[in-house]
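Run log, item B.
One chain of 177 residues. Sequence copied directly from the ordering sheet:
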Amino acid sequence: MNDEAVTPPLYDFDPATPSGAVIQALYALQDAEALHRCRLRDHFGIGANDLSAIEYIARLENVGRTPRPRDVTHMLGVTSAATTILLNRLMTRGFVTRQPDPEDGRGQLLGLTPVARAMLQDAAGTSQHALRMKLSTITAREAKRVVSLLDAVTLSLDKGAPVAKPLNDIDPAMSAV
């Protein structure tokens, strides 16, 4: 007889149960998102952090916020020096603009170039339209339940991995964008 303790499976769920079916769907979503990001990186010819920065700048712009280098630094969890290198690379490639902040002479404001916007639009293809069409039929009650579930998943992921160093200077509102 084997005296070693039996280790439970890392991702233990039964897809035949309602909760297991949701977990399976979340894993499928993660896989699809990872493949989508891989295709976007290939489309732009850039690395993962560069793509994350472009997508984050686009999301901030879409909600009417003006991105700053420190926002990218916090979102990526890298140093300001690494952000400077990354932004310089994206500027050289013609994807990002950087301008002085008129309200803070030391600050800078970021933006996507028309080239980057066009490439994001091109890469999205018809998927964004199909998603909008599908979501246009959702009721307020269904939306509330989905948002509640996704908030719970987000909280679970946020608590799921140890943080190597505290990120206590991250604006909580930034993580929701």
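Observations after the first pass:
- The CA atoms of residues 44 and 165 lie 31 Å apart.
- Residues 168-172 have pLDDT under 50 and may be disordered.
Flagged for discussion on Thursday.
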